[in-house]
Structures are given as C-alpha cells and as structure tokens.
Design a protein that fits this description.
Radius of gyration of chain C: 23 Å
CATH topology of chain C: MetI-like fold
CATH superfamily of the largest domain in chain B: Periplasmic binding protein-like II
Strand content of chain B: 15-25%
Oligomer: heterotrimer
CATH architecture of chain C: Orthogonal Bundle
Structural class of chain B: alpha/beta
Radius of gyration of chain B: 20 Å
Number of helices of chain C: 14
Number of helices of chain B: 16
CATH superfamily of chain C: MetI-like
Largest interface: A-C, 106 and 106 residues
Chains: A mainly alpha (about 280), B alpha/beta (about 350), C mainly alpha (about 280)
Order of helices and strands of chain B: HHEHEHEHEEEHEHHEHEHEEEEHHHHHEH
Largest sheet of chain C: 2 strands, antiparallel
Distance between the termini of chain C: 22 Å
Amino acid sequence: MIGPLARLMRPVPGVAWLAALYVFLLAPLIVVVGASFNGGDRGALNFPPTDLSLRWYGAVPMGLYRALGISLGLALVTALVGCLLGVPAALGLIRATFRGKQVVGALFRAPLQVPAVVIGVSFLQFYYLVGDRTGFYAVDNVAGLMVAHIFMATPYVIGPVGAVLQRFNPRLEEAALILGATRWSTFRRVTLPLIMPGIYAGAVYAFMISFADLPVSLLLAGTNIKTFPVEIFQAMDYDFNPALLAVSTMIIIFSLVAMVLLQRAIGLNALLRTGGAS
Amino acid sequence: MTKLVSRRDVLAGGAGLAALPLVAAPALAQSPRVDGVTLRIATFGGGWEKALHDFIGIELEKLGGKDEYLPSPPRESLAKLIAARGREAPVDVLEMADNTWVDTFDGGFLQKINLANIPNKKDLEPHQYDENKVASWNTQEGLLYNIDKFKENGIPVPERYSDLTHPKLAGKISMIDISQAGSTQFLVGASLDAGGSESNLEPGLKLLKQLNVHKFWKLGAEALTQMQAGDSWVAVMHAGFAVQTRRNGLNYGFVHPKVGAKRGMLKEGWLGIVKGSKNAAAAEFFLNAYVDAEAQEKLALRRGIVPVNPTARANLAKDPLLKDILLLSREDVNNMVRVDFTKLDLAAMNDKWTRAVAN
Amino acid sequence: MKARWHWLLVPPVVLSVGLLAASQFVFLRGSFFRDLRLGRFGTEPTLYNYLLVFTDSFYLDSLWLTIRLSAIVVVLTLLCGYPAAYVIARLRSRWAMLLLAMIVVTSFVTIVIKVLGLVILFSSGGMLNRFFLGLGLLDRPFTILGNLTGVTIGLMHFTLGFAVLLLYGVIQTIPRSLEEAAQIHGASRWRVFWRVIIPLSLPGVIVSALIIFNLSMGAFTSAALIGAGKIYTLPVLIQHTVILQTKYAMGATLSAVLLMTTLLINLLSLMIVARLPAARRLTA
C-alpha cells in the first residue's frame, strides 16, 4: 500500500536525477549563451555578462552563415542516406539468422573507432586511386566529403534501430501479412512506426556527426567549401570573436525548435501519450 | 643526408640570386593579363582567405583572373599533397608556416619560382625569398602576461623563457601546444638561450618539463579566455594577441624574450608554388601582390600579422600601440632569432615534446 | 521467407564495410613497410613498425589509457543515461518532448565553442570552484582541462545524449502494463525495475555500450581540446604521427592496433554477454 505522501514523493528521485543530468549537460551552454549577450569588446569570454546587449548578433560575418548553410545541407543528406543504409542494415542484422552475425555487426560499428584523421587521410588516398582508374576524382568536391560523412554516420543509425527492432515482436508483422497487407504496407504501417524512435535517435546523431565534424572536413572539403566547424575553429585560432557565441546561441535556439517540430512530425508525441507499444 | 645538404644549398643560393632581378624588373612594369585563369590557393579559413581576396585576389581579378581558396591549414595541405603525389597539382599556391615549408620542400612538392616575376622582392631581405619560396608574413613569438597579476604577486617581468620557472608562476602558465606552429619557436628559443641549438633541443625540453604548465593551448581564443578567467597569468603566444587584447582594453604586456645576445623569436610564413601548377604566371603575380607594401599593411591591420615588407612595417610604427608591442624597425627585426629549420628534425622534436608532456 | 532478410544487408555491407575495407586497406598497408616520412615507404615488407609499437611503453600506455577511458565513459554514460531515459519514457507529459529535444541540442554546439564554456565553468576563480571551496567541500580549485576527468566529461557530453535517445527508444517499447501488473502482485518498484525493465531493455544497453565504447576509442576533437595537450589518447597520437610528423607507416601501425584491439574487445564482450543469464532468457 502506498501512502499519499509516498505517492507524492515517488517521482522525486527520478526527477532529481534528471535535473542533475540536465545541469551537467547544459552548464557549458548556459555560459556560452550568457556570454553571447555581453556587449563589451572582444578580448575574451565574459560570464556572467556585465553589459547586456545584442551587439554581437548583428556582427556575425556573412561567411559564417554561408558555412552554416553548407554544413546543414551536408548533415541533412548524411542523415537521410545514413537512414536509407542503416535501417535495412539493422533489419537484416536482427532478422536474418546466419553464422558470423556478430562479426558483421562489429564491422558495421568499426567506422566509429577509426580516428577521424585516419578517415580523412585514407579516404583521400582511396579517392585518388579510384580516380586513377575511373577518371573521377572525389577529392576537392563535396561528394567526397559527403561519402566520408555517410560512412562515419551510418553506425549511429544501425545501432538504435537494431536495438528497438530486437524488442519488437515480429508476430505483429505476420498478423498484418495474414490479414492481407502487402509487404511494403506492412513495413510502412506496422514496422516503421514502431522503430521510429530508433530511426529518430539514429538520424539525429548521423546529422550531428556530419554537422560537428572538424578533422575530416579539414582534409576532404573542397575549394570554397567551408563547413561551419572549420570556420569556427580557424576563426578562434586567430582571436576571440563574441559573434561566434552569438551564432552558437542561434543554433541552440533553432535546433531546439526544429527538434520539437520534428518529434511532432514523426509522431513521437503520439508514442509518448500512449506509452509506446502495448 | 643528401636532402639536408641540398636544402642548405637552396637557402644559400637564394641570397646569390638576389642581384639578378634588377636587370629583369623594368620589363615587368606592365603586368600580363591572366584572362580565364582560376588560381587556387590553399590557405587558412576563418576570415583569413577573405582578407587575402580583399587585398590580393582583387588585383588578380583586375587582370581577368579569379582566385579560389581551399580552406586548409598548412599541415593539412601537406597531407593533401602527399595523397596527390605524382598526380595533377591539387592547388597552385600554398601558404605555409615555416615548420611546414621544410617538409613540403623535402617532399618535392614545390616548383621553382621565376623571381623575375616578383619585382616587389626589391623591398625584401635576401633571406626572405629564393626560387622555392617567398616570405608572406611574420609573427613575433614571446610571452603575453597579465600586468596586474604580476604586480599583485610581486613577480618580476620575465626577460627570457627561463624566467617562467619563477615559483609563483607554477600552474599559471598557458603554454603553446605542439600542434601550433609557434611551438617550435619556443622550444628552439629556450634551447638556444641555454646553450643548445636547433639540433640539440635538450635544454628546451628540460625547461618544458621543469615548468608547471596549467594547460597547453590549441586555440588562441581558448588561451585568451583562460587568461581572462585568471587561470593563467602568462601565455606563450605571438605579439598579435597582445595587440588585440590591448585594443580591447585589457592590461596585458608582451615580452620579446632575450635569446643569447638576440631578442625576440620570429615565426615566418612562406608562399610556394605547387609542382605541376599550370598557372605559374598568375601564381607569381599573386606572390608579388602578396608582398606589396600596401597589401602587407592592410593584412597586418586586419589580421594581426607582422608585415615582411619594411615599408609596411614603417607605416605601422606610426601607431603608438603597435610600435610599443611589435618589433618593427629593420635593426630590431634583424636582431630576432630566425629558426634554422634545415638543422631541425621536426618529427623527432614532435615525438620528444609529446613524450615529455604526456601525463 | 527467412532468407529474404539477407538481401537487405547487401547494400549496406557493400557500401559501409566495402568503404571500410577499401579505405583502410589503402592506408593500413603502409604499416608493413619502413617509414621514410612524408608518406613514403620502404619497398621490403616488414613487421618492424609493429615491433616498435609493442616494445615502446609510451604507445602501450596510450593504448591502455584509451581503453580505460572508453570503458569509464561507457559505465558512467549508462549509469547517468539509463535512469534519465527511463524517467523520460515514463513521463506522461508534454515536457517529455522538450526534455528529449534539449538533450539532443546539447550535442549541437561544437566542442570548439563548448570548451570555452568549460574553461569558464571550471576556472579557479569561477562560480563552481568558489561555491565548493566556500562550502569547504574542496581544499583547492578543481579543474577538468588537461586531465582524464575532463576528457571523460567532454566525451560524455556527446555520448549521454545519444544513449538517452537510444535507451528511450528501447524503454518505450516495454509496455507500462507490465510494470503495473508486477506491482499489483506486490513487487516493489526497484524489484520491477531490476527484474523486468532492465532485462527487457538489455539489447539497447548492449548496443549503447558498444557504440559508446567504439566512438570513445576513436574520438579526437574533444580528447585533443579538453586533454589540453597533456592527455594523449591513441587517436590524438595518431593525428600527431600522421599530420605533424608525417610518419604514415607509424600512423598506420598505431591505427591498425587501435582498430584490431577495439574489434577484439567488441567480440569478446559480446561473447561474455551471451553467457549472462538475462541474455539467455532473452534469446530463448
């Protein structure tokens, strides 16, 4: 039997845990966001801000917006292709039974442990060899960078989708098939909604891998293709420009809105309300 | 070994060639058109490439050419050249810090520059150009320190790198990271000052181990933030950062360390033309425009480098702040230490540094 | 009918594993030749580089450090992330969506910027240190830059979001009715948590653990920036060897050692997990 006080206290440990976690994750961002509103001169990061102003929001160099656009496009394509590769891979990996499955799974995860600089250098060498044979050199253009990003990002899709699939009862699909649904509509109506949280996690992190990548972009980005992390990194190498904090704050706000909208669009909220599969 | 000898010959040869251009210069009064040529330059990003376009690339456009920038720091550019070895040149012009110039030359990635097409070399010192490279910019490496913190704690203003061993500076030093080109200047400077040389870096490494370093900085902004937060009172950086912080109203001083009888450490940027470049004429035009007094002065004002062109330096000296922080006169600059990279084993240096500081 | 699932694997295997094999073959082949710097190699195949790596305690220490660090990151991420994912998955409120979105957004700010925030947070005169020193909980300022704690925290700033999102996806597949039923039968909440929720979400835990371990083994940017030039994990050393020293054969050797060690640990841990009673129940 649970008393009223105990009932009231029930979620407290969980919520406290959650709060601590968010403080841990958000603290450095709060410093960045706070300091972006400091209107004082360059020099260095000031937190807490001493003279509140939006001055640096107007001072973001155009080049930074362009770089942001390039990185966004690149990350979107990476996430999309990552899903197109990762979802079938996870389905195959979980559903098929064959010897050496663990090895294939481990190989799918292997791109994670290859240090980025090695990915950069080895893809450069590989692209030149391919170019020597085919005449198409994927160096110094966006295609080469994109392929490398997709390579790095796909494991982030396979993992979560596989994990959700493993929890999911194939009999639901069988039932749909018996009821006369086609394979495709079974997948679309039954399987896809159920693995959506996995796809969501995978797509978001595939996006992030591309969006945040610095070392590979430094080696594979082509002429006039300046990705956002490269611009930020090289700008900070020379001096401290508070406009970089302003642009980071904009990213935080826009991505927060985008995430909430995305969760609605893919029906994550419906899952939440029903409490998921039942 | 043969490589080292050849490199030294090249450096010596550069001085000899200096006399030659006087004859060729008048013929070049009129620059050739470069219609339809797209010159590709590998250089830094983060606004630097924009400055290059505004002050130098624009001149190329006037002649009908176009400038395109490949955003990659010198070491990454070198990796790209290594991958492309034996194939078409991926870029035409290469911007390098001094520590990368050596490797790029040794790797056989540079083609000879026709110095007759660089009339602006008349302004440069003989060691600032040869047929493999032309000077692009300098930075002056030394010690940036928080004047107030030094006063409060009664720490004397350092004069040389070894003064960083002052007990009160323990844990308050922001040291340049080995991944930054300027780390060579620190290590060589500290070694030279303690009886070592480019080929004997032990004294510098000994000092490095002796120092209680708070943190090795990899990004300028990070080091400045750290100083602002009071975590470090002195940072091994270049004077450009001192100019910036002073303009922003911070009470920071800068020391050009004494090294033996000399004073100050010079880090030199170089330009080279990539072997196999089909746009040699446009590339040479770009190199020439780069060292032009006006372009150098503008670059210095926007991006905090020290001009290689003495006329530009003389103009900067009219600014009291710049005059106070930078060494701008010809005598002062010539009295700075220029690292002899032909005697330095970079890979071994990097390895030793890493082993000395790894926790 | 079952055979059809195999075909789904063909395109990703061809692309993903194919790219891995092709690119790594090109690069790692260099590890079997003498290093002549600047991407040049000797002509005679040799195991000399491997001998160098395995007889040099500096490299071995770095490998061991990387493994230890990755294991710590896995354990801490799961310890912090699992309860959080559970709470969010069971939260019957609109806030849950915002909470999920917020966790994602923390990963969106590049580490290059985040490191500045960390410098300020953990500065000796900063708020955190003043607070804890004032309470007498610390006797000297605490820093995270340039030590293992910092690199761990830096990595966790990326891995936590991923783990929470992944585990949330798995936990929300476990019907609430199951927990309610167990509680009606008198089982305590902890018991339900340990005996029902954890075993049922085990696949998610294993996948998270493996992914976090592998990505920590290969992580460069955060390790390099927060390690502050003092912490040399193997990926940071590899970057130095290839980019700064242009010793490609050595870089390839270190890279091969890292790749093989991680693959081996992956397979070994899966074999161990397969023997756990909870996993047996799952596959039975």
